[in-house]
Fold:
Amino acid sequence: MTTSQTPEKMPKGLLAAAHWAAERTPETRNRAVDLYRAIAISFVILGHWLLVAGVIRDGELEFVILLAEQRWTHYATWLFQVMPVFFFVGGFSNGLSWTSACKDPVKKSAWASSRLSRLLKPTVPVVLAWAVAGVVAHALGVSVELISTASQAALVPVWFLAVYIIMTMAVPVTMAMWDKLGITSVGLLALAAILVDAIAFGADQGWLRWTNYAFVWLAVHQLGYWWGQAKRPKPWALGFIAIGLAWLYILIVHFGFPVAMVSVPGAEMSNTRPPTTAMLAVGSVQIGIILLLTDVAQRWLQNTRIWAWVIVFNQMIMSIYLWHMTALLIVVGITAYLFGGIGLHEAPGTGLWWAMRPIWVMLFTAVLIPFVLVFVVFEAGSRTKAEMRPGPWQAMLGALMTCSGLVTAAMVGLGKENSIGVNWLAVALVVLGVLVATRRFSRS
Structure:
């Protein structure tokens, strides 16, 4: 075989491979989707690092949520609450991926497992790491309550991942719904979410609000399908922004909905747990801004070097997301117990406290980077051939198992009153669930 006939191989090394891929990206690709995903995850992390504050009071280390201390920060959540962006770009990507897979029966059967692989596998090391830390801490006499508190703080980001996994598993159904109803499907889901809020608050049926985890986020995800197929989405941008702002005004001013778009400790009501239609309103504004800026973003990302860095970030995005709170806890813990609490005695929200935030953010970043570089390997796409991957029902079973463990860790942590001090069932559900979702056990 001559040199000209030899297949070109992707170079080794994350950055080199990203640059190689950037040079070969088709002109038709919507690169802005990857940029928006990277920006959104950065806002989530920065929001956590700014609004979760370690402080020493009366000689004890506490973690304060700034939202409970300073009301003006509630408006900042309109910027940092970017879950709608994730579901919007997720719908775009999932729609294109599913449509492509449907052209091949083998790829269609393996689609769920393939999609879950990069979502689920990175959760295993972070959950196992905190489980091992819990076992060691319990053996050293640390209370189960402290193990639960620390692990819950570190793993709380996985609750969003659990919701997104379920949305991903529903793609075959929601795409069929889109194919039949088109943009009407978004309107029906949005109306269902509004009806749920009306009944839940108007008739004091709070239990009904939990159904809006489906209606609210499915509506936004469904809009991602629209974006993937719309020929001229930009003219819709101002309409989305206007509708979103008007609905926010009505909900907040006339119906007393919270200003904050995340849960505030001590508040009677949350816009996110479970979601209210205020999340649809914020999402509408964010989607409008996305549509307005997409052409500019596309032109900017024609620069190969910039586009390569966006590719790199997206290749490690799950690791960054899953480990960022662990990095915060490590830095604050070491500072409190080994360095006399330097920087932790200032009251959160003061001028000096804000002036010190850039230093803390740099420290968190420095600790996060090694975790990302070590565990990014778990985000690598599976090289298993489609015919050797699990079918959709096995993948769904594994996803549900994993989500059960993740939700438990996010809600109450991994501490447990038993011989090892750790909720081994939650850990086992995550590990075994990932195996079931991504590995085929039978060749028949």
